[in-house]
Amino acid sequence: MRSRGRSPTLVKTTGIEDPMKSPNRWKFLLSAVLFAAGCGGPTEVDRDNRRAVDQLLTAITLRSPSLLDAAAKRVATRHSAGQLTDEESQSLEAIIQKAHAGNWGAAETDGYEFRKQNPFVREGR
User: Fold this and answer.
1) CA gap 9, 1 in Å, rounded
2) What is the pTM of this model?
3) Contact between 18 and 10 (Cβ < 8 Å)
């Protein structure tokens, strides 16, 4: 008759429990999964901030006042919701003001520099 549970032969001969049934194995696996989930990538807020910057850059590149107004509204809304810091919002507002003043080239340069300094989402993610 075979016993259930631990393999008596494995424990008796090696002094090691069957690793498939060890509670520590499950703790390790759970820890690894939780760690990977926490380090898995950008948050949804980060992704939305990147989309807002990309929307602004698109408006500036196309030199479209109507798209610029929509992007400015999105930046203001995200700042009001606490999803952009005061510093990030002020930098984006300065870029928006340059574009509104017709200085599209400088706004575009500053916008790409802002995105480089504040990527929110790393390339390839």
Assistant:
1) 14
2) 0.66
3) yes
